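Hi! If you just cloned this repository, the fastest way to understand the data is to look at a raw example. We've pasted two of them here, unedited. The first protein comes first, obviously.
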Amino acid sequence: MEASSNLNALLRKNPDDVVITMAIRSPLCKAKKGGFRDMRSDELLTEMFKQAINHSGIDPEVIEDICVGTVLPKGPTYEARTAALTAGIPESVPIQTLNRFCSSGLMAVTTIANEIRAGQIDVGLAVGVESMSWNPDVGPEGASDDIKACGPANDALQPMGWTSENVAHEFNVSREDMDDFAAKSFQRAEAADKAGYFAKEIVPFTSYLKDPATGVRKKVTVSKDDGIRYGTTKTTLLKIKSAFPQWLPAHTTGGNASQITDGAAAVLLMTRRKAMELRLRILAKYANAAVTGLAPRIMGIGPTIAIPKVLAKVGLSKNDVDLFEINEAFASMCVYCVRKLELDPEKVNVNGGAIAFGHPLGATGARQIVTGLNELERRRGKVLVTSMCMGTGMGAAAVLLGEFE
């Protein structure tokens, strides 16, 4: 397909471009059961920082700011700062944390990109991380009577499973549609795993697992995702009982929703000028991002608003996009988003998604960039769009342009 004039303009290289020179992730491991189950959240983050330093190709003193996207820790900035120092990042490198639910990893990337674009820094590190083993998601801790009396505000406090059922009901997404989508996610992830595609984006992590007999933790190396269920079919998924029978149409199950998972990802960004000075390989150019709000009761449809918004900002159409990475929070929302935006299913989550290998809340936004760029390079594509919905009724999306120099 011939590139549009707007795409050609975006692909032009300028010294002030914000570029990505490293995009790596941990394996994704089942919470409470997988390879990181006995690892503290600050230990997981420390290991991510160590791996980022090892794979960055730069002295960490060059980093001028770090942004960590994470959702569940009670003291996130304490964890981030102490983990960075423990990993060997100098005291002179500042750090910040942010929480915009499922987009936190993407927002960390966007925050660093905006700082670079504004001229505040030349080099920054974005990290997304979540240990759902160490910090289980317990939901909101309550609300005032005034908030409970406000319909949309009260909706924003409700469980995410309820919002999945609302999307399925309101937009006529059937159980068969959802299980068909979920089966494809597992099958694509299995095929990509067997082909070794993920090995190019995953960096092996040192973890600590307790000996069941002694309770003593021992070091182990974790190098593969452990949530992919080989041999999954629509037929097997249709046999799983509803996870939320109290909410109609009760189509959401443990087989067609994202897995509860531990994991992390890291993205190094800088100006093109700095990357050339440091002689670093450029993977992609950061184009732009967009966020939006919407009715909390159908929060899953966020990508249907955020994706057109970000494409309009950069002057592209969906036909210019080679790959979409849309977070599979629930199959109901993914089925609807693909249908509503009239996307080519062969361009969406081509190596599976969160249904197949998990959704560590703060990590997913960065993880999707890592996975998307890895596959974009394999296909020699040009345009990646990554997107997700977020609890309380929001959506986010970003456009990245592959270079792979």
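Ok, and the second one:
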Amino acid sequence: MAPRPRWEAGTAAERAFAHITDYLAGLPERPVAAAEGYAKIHARLSIPLPAGSTDPLEIVDELAAAAEPGLAATGSPRFFGYVIGGTVPAALAADLMAVAWDQNAGLASLSPAAAAAEAVAGEWIKELLGLPATASVGITTGTQMAHVTALGAARHRALARYGWDVEADGLHGAPPVRVFVGAARHTTVDAALRLLGFGSRRLTVVDTDDAGRMRPEALRVALAAGTGPAIVVAQAGEINTGAFDAMGQICAISHEHGAWVHVDGAFGLWAAVSASARRRALVTGIDQADSWATDGHKWLNLAYDCGIAIVADERAHRAAMSTRAPYIPPPAVDEHDPLEWTPEFSRRARGFALYAALRSLGRAGLTDLVDRCCAHARRLADALGALDGVAVLNDVELNQVLVRIDDDDATTAAVIELVVTGGEALVSGTVWHRAVAMRLSVCNWMTTEADVDRAVAAIAAAIADARGRCHG
């Protein structure tokens, strides 16, 4: 009989850890954008499938060498594209342990530790955000699946009020559910609603102001125009401007018409922990909503992936998500079974990293992280706004900065490309009010004022170069 395989010193895991250590050590100074694109990396990885086994050490070394040029340094302190945080050390370590432990986090009976970590982290998050202590929490892959989870609960409750069991009878023949969304909503809202059977053409789009905030009176008129089950999706932190819907008004108007209010707060919900009264005021009334979705891999600085769905109506949440079978043991009275609160059964144990990040930062650390990032965003806006021909398009209330160069699409697009290819910083482009704009988001725990100043210098140099190309 062949000897049983076993883990030994000097294994592939140790070699991988050495590569990880090297990558992290070089992260602050490496070019922020990937050095090579998809085609080159694909060609390098695309070898014939081996007929036999390959030495794990060889695979790890060759994979690290092949993939490294195609890695965007999303953890860099000068990564300002999209809304992506870094990874705090405790969360990274916990994630590495979670991979090694290889727990299926679906059941408390299957992994008591994974389920308990999720439950404790969920309680901490509700406390930090000022949300109802009785609300239920599900840990998902990201905000999109958190939307699916929370809006699934909304769909259940909205139809149950009209005598319809959507989990048993589906949507065919059900009372029509009116869904109200802002004109500046995030695309993940639409994707989640499609997955739940609400076609995009059936959404009622509510007018927004110049910053992307839903107009409360426009919502009132839209709700009054019909009857029946209704769901309203509000937004805490517009992806371009960082603007917040007027949560207290939105919730009051919606509840007057019997509508469920769901809040897309992928990054904006964390304004609740700010030391700034002005920033905390942005989320005033948010506790009056019925459900909320946020991210772990943005301001909490967890590695991908982690989303959080919070639902005030625990019974609706469980009814929409829970599934059982004869082989699945029911949870004990005091147990948290994660499969009851998310669309997934078999899944990785994200709760360990979430627990570690929250415990590592603590309330004071999280407050400092949020306020420091907002201060860096303000510094970016002030410095860029002082450059000739650069217009800051938004009121920088949080961590988002939106700029346009020379009021010209081609010049703005050229600057974005030059900054990214230059490698000193990474920014992303967008279209705002039909005009090309540069978007910068600050949510990395390692970013300093020096990093902000380096990014501004890179952007200033790119502007000079772009003008020469576009207008020379």
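That's it. A detail worth noticing about the second one: Residues 93-357 form a domain with the Aspartate Aminotransferase; domain 2 fold (CATH 3.40.640.10).
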